[in-house]
Amino acid sequence: PYEDLEIPKPAGIILGNQSTSQSSAQLEPGLYRDGLVVSDRSVTFLPGLFQFGAFGLRIEGTGVVELLDASIQLVGPNAILDLRDDGRLTGTPIATGDWRDVAILGARPTRITVTGRGRLQVPGVVYLPNGDVEIDGDAVVIVDAAVTGSWTQVDSSTARVDRVIIETDRPTAGRARLRR
Question: pTM for the complete prediction?
């Protein structure tokens, strides 16, 4: 249903790399041109679209990001969503409009990496038709659906996805070995 929709343009609001010494914070939606690192903190993304340039969004240590009717768009050519250590992304995506229920969105080649004991658990869709999802270590990914160029899962990582659509011309991108 998203194939014919126009990808959102970067927002007019440009926010620099944010940091806080508080144990928790709330951030407003907009374009984070310089990317964002959440390390050993709890951050709530308030309602709206959060766009990340530069290196993207990295959640590390015991960092937690909770989406509150919010979605993430990776807009830079090197922007990735990187959950490492015990980093977690939870919450709910935008519930209205054309992109409702899309938690993570990226139009250009990009990727999501979840490693260590990282956890990506959001009800909704991961829409990266030209991107890659990589899950490694003891990481966990739980989403409703994913449209991606490739899905790689190794070690003792866990994924629970109702639907995965691999959209690519790479002959090995859709190979799977399932085990109980």
Answer: 0.85
